[in-house]
Amino acid sequence: MAKTISLYGSSIGQKIVSAFTGLFLCGFLVIHVSGNLLLFKNDGGVSFDHYAGALSSSVLIRSIEILLFAGFAIHIFWGIRGWIFNRRARPKNYAEYNPSESSSLFSRIMLLSGSIVLFFLVVHLKNFWVPIRFGAQDLSDYDLVRIAFQSPLYDFFYVFCLVLLAFHLRQGFQAAFQSVGLRSLWLKAINMVAIIFWLLIPAAFAAMPLYFLLAKGGR
Ligand code: HEM
Predict the structure, then answer these.
(1) How confident is the model at residue 48 (pLDDT cuts 50, 70, 90)?
(2) The pTM is what?
(3) Which of 45, 132, 160, 192 is the most exposed, fewest CB within 10 Å of its CB?
Protein backbone atom coordinates (compact mmCIF):
# COMPACT_ATOMS: atom_id res chain seq x y z
CA MET A 1 0.00 0.00 0.00
CA ALA A 2 2.80 2.36 0.99
CA LYS A 3 4.54 1.43 -2.28
CA THR A 4 1.41 2.26 -4.27
CA ILE A 5 1.14 5.64 -2.62
CA SER A 6 4.79 6.49 -3.24
CA LEU A 7 4.50 5.41 -6.90
CA TYR A 8 1.38 7.56 -7.29
CA GLY A 9 3.01 10.55 -5.65
CA SER A 10 6.43 10.43 -7.33
CA SER A 11 7.66 11.75 -10.65
CA ILE A 12 9.23 8.31 -11.31
CA GLY A 13 5.78 6.75 -10.88
CA GLN A 14 4.38 9.33 -13.30
CA LYS A 15 7.05 8.51 -15.88
CA ILE A 16 6.53 4.76 -15.57
CA VAL A 17 2.75 5.00 -15.99
CA SER A 18 3.16 7.38 -18.96
CA ALA A 19 5.76 4.99 -20.46
CA PHE A 20 3.67 1.82 -20.18
CA THR A 21 0.41 3.39 -21.37
CA GLY A 22 2.31 5.16 -24.20
CA LEU A 23 3.89 1.87 -25.35
CA PHE A 24 0.47 0.18 -25.16
CA LEU A 25 -0.98 2.95 -27.39
CA CYS A 26 1.95 2.50 -29.81
CA GLY A 27 0.88 -1.15 -30.10
CA PHE A 28 -2.60 0.02 -31.05
CA LEU A 29 -1.12 2.30 -33.74
CA VAL A 30 0.67 -0.67 -35.35
CA ILE A 31 -2.60 -2.63 -35.57
CA HIS A 32 -4.60 0.41 -36.72
CA VAL A 33 -2.19 1.42 -39.47
CA SER A 34 -1.87 -2.20 -40.68
CA GLY A 35 -5.66 -2.58 -41.07
CA ASN A 36 -5.98 0.81 -42.71
CA LEU A 37 -3.39 -0.12 -45.35
CA LEU A 38 -6.32 -1.96 -46.99
CA LEU A 39 -7.49 1.49 -48.11
CA PHE A 40 -4.68 1.35 -50.68
CA LYS A 41 -5.91 -1.94 -52.15
CA ASN A 42 -7.37 -1.12 -55.53
CA ASP A 43 -10.57 -3.14 -55.12
CA GLY A 44 -13.07 -0.31 -54.68
CA GLY A 45 -12.97 -0.61 -50.90
CA VAL A 46 -14.27 -4.21 -50.67
CA SER A 47 -11.42 -5.43 -48.42
CA PHE A 48 -11.51 -2.33 -46.20
CA ASP A 49 -15.31 -2.58 -45.77
CA HIS A 50 -14.94 -6.24 -44.89
CA TYR A 51 -12.25 -5.44 -42.32
CA ALA A 52 -14.12 -2.47 -40.75
CA GLY A 53 -17.36 -4.51 -40.67
CA ALA A 54 -15.58 -7.38 -38.91
CA LEU A 55 -14.20 -4.96 -36.30
CA SER A 56 -17.64 -3.47 -35.60
CA SER A 57 -19.35 -6.82 -35.18
CA SER A 58 -16.68 -8.53 -33.05
CA VAL A 59 -17.49 -8.70 -29.33
CA LEU A 60 -13.79 -9.31 -28.62
CA ILE A 61 -12.73 -6.14 -30.47
CA ARG A 62 -15.41 -4.14 -28.68
CA SER A 63 -14.09 -5.35 -25.33
CA ILE A 64 -10.51 -4.53 -26.33
CA GLU A 65 -11.73 -1.04 -27.29
CA ILE A 66 -12.69 -0.44 -23.65
CA LEU A 67 -9.08 -1.23 -22.69
CA LEU A 68 -7.87 1.07 -25.46
CA PHE A 69 -9.98 4.02 -24.31
CA ALA A 70 -8.88 3.36 -20.73
CA GLY A 71 -5.26 3.42 -21.99
CA PHE A 72 -5.86 6.81 -23.62
CA ALA A 73 -7.60 8.18 -20.51
CA ILE A 74 -4.81 7.05 -18.14
CA HIS A 75 -2.07 8.32 -20.49
CA ILE A 76 -3.73 11.74 -20.78
CA PHE A 77 -4.48 12.01 -17.06
CA TRP A 78 -0.89 11.14 -16.07
CA GLY A 79 0.55 13.40 -18.78
CA ILE A 80 -1.36 16.39 -17.38
CA ARG A 81 -0.47 15.36 -13.85
CA GLY A 82 3.24 15.19 -14.78
CA TRP A 83 3.08 18.64 -16.32
CA ILE A 84 1.52 20.05 -13.13
CA PHE A 85 4.16 18.19 -11.07
CA ASN A 86 6.99 19.78 -13.11
CA ARG A 87 5.39 23.20 -12.93
CA ARG A 88 5.20 23.06 -9.15
CA ALA A 89 8.78 21.75 -8.91
CA ARG A 90 10.39 24.53 -10.94
CA PRO A 91 12.17 27.41 -9.16
CA LYS A 92 9.91 30.28 -8.10
CA ASN A 93 12.53 32.85 -9.09
CA TYR A 94 12.33 33.31 -12.87
CA ALA A 95 15.88 34.73 -13.00
CA GLU A 96 17.13 31.26 -11.97
CA TYR A 97 14.74 29.43 -14.23
CA ASN A 98 16.12 28.21 -17.53
CA PRO A 99 13.46 26.11 -19.30
CA SER A 100 15.93 24.70 -21.84
CA GLU A 101 17.82 23.03 -19.00
CA SER A 102 14.73 21.76 -17.32
CA SER A 103 12.58 18.69 -17.74
CA SER A 104 9.61 21.05 -17.64
CA LEU A 105 10.37 22.15 -21.23
CA PHE A 106 10.06 18.52 -22.31
CA SER A 107 6.88 18.21 -20.29
CA ARG A 108 5.40 21.40 -21.83
CA ILE A 109 6.21 20.31 -25.38
CA MET A 110 4.70 16.88 -24.73
CA LEU A 111 1.59 18.51 -23.26
CA LEU A 112 1.18 20.82 -26.27
CA SER A 113 1.74 18.15 -28.95
CA GLY A 114 -0.36 15.67 -26.93
CA SER A 115 -3.23 18.18 -26.63
CA ILE A 116 -3.32 18.72 -30.39
CA VAL A 117 -3.24 14.94 -30.96
CA LEU A 118 -6.13 14.65 -28.47
CA PHE A 119 -8.11 17.27 -30.40
CA PHE A 120 -7.35 15.31 -33.59
CA LEU A 121 -8.56 12.13 -31.91
CA VAL A 122 -11.90 13.69 -30.91
CA VAL A 123 -12.52 14.94 -34.49
CA HIS A 124 -11.34 11.60 -35.89
CA LEU A 125 -13.60 9.50 -33.66
CA LYS A 126 -16.60 11.74 -34.35
CA ASN A 127 -16.14 11.54 -38.12
CA PHE A 128 -15.12 7.89 -38.56
CA TRP A 129 -15.50 5.75 -35.48
CA VAL A 130 -18.97 6.94 -34.34
CA PRO A 131 -20.70 6.53 -37.75
CA ILE A 132 -19.00 3.16 -38.40
CA ARG A 133 -19.61 1.69 -34.93
CA PHE A 134 -23.13 3.01 -34.47
CA GLY A 135 -24.23 2.71 -38.09
CA ALA A 136 -25.18 6.39 -38.38
CA GLN A 137 -24.47 6.53 -42.13
CA ASP A 138 -25.78 5.39 -45.53
CA LEU A 139 -22.28 5.27 -47.05
CA SER A 140 -19.97 2.28 -47.02
CA ASP A 141 -17.07 2.58 -44.54
CA TYR A 142 -14.63 3.01 -47.43
CA ASP A 143 -16.75 5.79 -48.99
CA LEU A 144 -16.98 7.57 -45.65
CA VAL A 145 -13.18 7.76 -45.51
CA ARG A 146 -12.78 8.46 -49.26
CA ILE A 147 -15.25 11.39 -49.26
CA ALA A 148 -13.83 12.90 -46.06
CA PHE A 149 -10.32 12.84 -47.50
CA GLN A 150 -11.32 14.55 -50.72
CA SER A 151 -11.37 17.85 -48.82
CA PRO A 152 -7.93 19.55 -49.01
CA LEU A 153 -8.60 21.44 -45.76
CA TYR A 154 -9.46 18.27 -43.88
CA ASP A 155 -6.35 16.58 -45.34
CA PHE A 156 -4.18 19.49 -44.28
CA PHE A 157 -5.58 19.19 -40.74
CA TYR A 158 -4.78 15.44 -40.74
CA VAL A 159 -1.26 15.82 -42.06
CA PHE A 160 -0.53 18.69 -39.64
CA CYS A 161 -1.76 16.61 -36.68
CA LEU A 162 0.20 13.59 -37.88
CA VAL A 163 3.40 15.66 -37.94
CA LEU A 164 2.69 16.54 -34.30
CA LEU A 165 1.92 12.89 -33.54
CA ALA A 166 5.34 12.02 -35.05
CA PHE A 167 6.96 14.61 -32.82
CA HIS A 168 5.07 13.38 -29.74
CA LEU A 169 6.06 9.77 -30.49
CA ARG A 170 9.71 10.66 -31.16
CA GLN A 171 10.10 12.37 -27.79
CA GLY A 172 7.82 9.99 -25.91
CA PHE A 173 9.16 6.72 -27.28
CA GLN A 174 12.73 7.42 -26.25
CA ALA A 175 11.69 8.84 -22.87
CA ALA A 176 9.55 5.74 -22.26
CA PHE A 177 12.53 3.41 -22.54
CA GLN A 178 14.62 5.72 -20.42
CA SER A 179 11.93 5.62 -17.72
CA VAL A 180 11.82 1.84 -17.61
CA GLY A 181 15.63 1.79 -17.50
CA LEU A 182 16.28 0.03 -20.81
CA ARG A 183 17.50 2.90 -22.99
CA SER A 184 21.19 2.74 -22.08
CA LEU A 185 21.21 -1.07 -22.46
CA TRP A 186 19.87 -1.31 -25.99
CA LEU A 187 20.40 2.21 -27.27
CA LYS A 188 20.93 1.36 -30.96
CA ALA A 189 18.08 -1.14 -31.19
CA ILE A 190 15.67 1.21 -29.41
CA ASN A 191 16.60 4.12 -31.68
CA MET A 192 15.93 1.95 -34.73
CA VAL A 193 12.56 0.70 -33.46
CA ALA A 194 11.73 4.30 -32.51
CA ILE A 195 12.10 5.30 -36.18
CA ILE A 196 9.35 2.82 -37.12
CA PHE A 197 7.07 4.46 -34.60
CA TRP A 198 7.78 8.13 -35.02
CA LEU A 199 8.53 8.17 -38.74
CA LEU A 200 7.07 5.22 -40.63
CA ILE A 201 3.72 4.92 -38.84
CA PRO A 202 2.78 8.64 -39.00
CA ALA A 203 4.03 8.72 -42.63
CA ALA A 204 1.83 5.72 -43.54
CA PHE A 205 -1.18 7.40 -41.85
CA ALA A 206 -0.42 10.69 -43.65
CA ALA A 207 -0.25 8.87 -47.00
CA MET A 208 -3.96 7.93 -46.60
CA PRO A 209 -5.55 11.40 -46.88
CA LEU A 210 -3.00 12.33 -49.57
CA TYR A 211 -3.88 9.19 -51.54
CA PHE A 212 -7.57 10.10 -51.59
CA LEU A 213 -6.83 13.72 -52.38
CA LEU A 214 -4.45 13.02 -55.24
CA ALA A 215 -5.52 9.61 -56.58
CA LYS A 216 -9.20 9.85 -55.51
CA GLY A 217 -9.08 6.34 -54.10
CA GLY A 218 -9.11 4.64 -57.50
CA ARG A 219 -12.90 5.11 -57.98
C1 HEM B 1 -4.99 9.13 -41.28
C2 HEM B 1 -5.21 7.89 -41.24
C3 HEM B 1 -6.32 7.25 -40.44
C4 HEM B 1 -7.45 6.68 -40.96
C5 HEM B 1 -7.83 6.56 -42.42
C6 HEM B 1 -8.21 6.15 -39.84
C7 HEM B 1 -9.43 5.51 -39.96
C8 HEM B 1 -10.20 5.08 -38.91
C9 HEM B 1 -11.48 4.44 -39.05
C10 HEM B 1 -12.19 4.19 -40.37
C11 HEM B 1 -11.92 4.15 -37.79
C12 HEM B 1 -13.24 3.46 -37.41
C13 HEM B 1 -13.24 2.00 -37.77
C14 HEM B 1 -12.21 1.22 -37.05
O15 HEM B 1 -12.33 1.05 -35.85
O16 HEM B 1 -11.24 0.77 -37.71
C17 HEM B 1 -10.91 4.58 -36.85
C18 HEM B 1 -10.96 4.43 -35.48
C19 HEM B 1 -10.03 4.88 -34.59
N20 HEM B 1 -8.87 5.58 -34.89
FE21 HEM B 1 -8.22 5.98 -36.76
N22 HEM B 1 -7.53 6.40 -38.67
C23 HEM B 1 -6.38 7.11 -38.98
C24 HEM B 1 -5.43 7.60 -38.07
C25 HEM B 1 -5.52 7.48 -36.69
C26 HEM B 1 -4.53 7.97 -35.75
C27 HEM B 1 -3.23 8.67 -36.14
C28 HEM B 1 -4.97 7.67 -34.49
C29 HEM B 1 -4.35 7.94 -33.14
C30 HEM B 1 -3.61 8.98 -32.86
C31 HEM B 1 -6.25 6.98 -34.64
C32 HEM B 1 -7.02 6.53 -33.60
C33 HEM B 1 -8.22 5.86 -33.72
C34 HEM B 1 -8.97 5.32 -32.61
C35 HEM B 1 -8.58 5.40 -31.13
C36 HEM B 1 -10.08 4.71 -33.15
C37 HEM B 1 -11.20 4.00 -32.37
C38 HEM B 1 -10.76 2.63 -31.93
C39 HEM B 1 -10.94 1.56 -32.95
O40 HEM B 1 -12.02 1.01 -32.98
O41 HEM B 1 -10.02 1.22 -33.73
N42 HEM B 1 -6.54 6.88 -35.98
N43 HEM B 1 -9.86 5.16 -37.56
Answers:
(1) very high
(2) 0.88
(3) 192
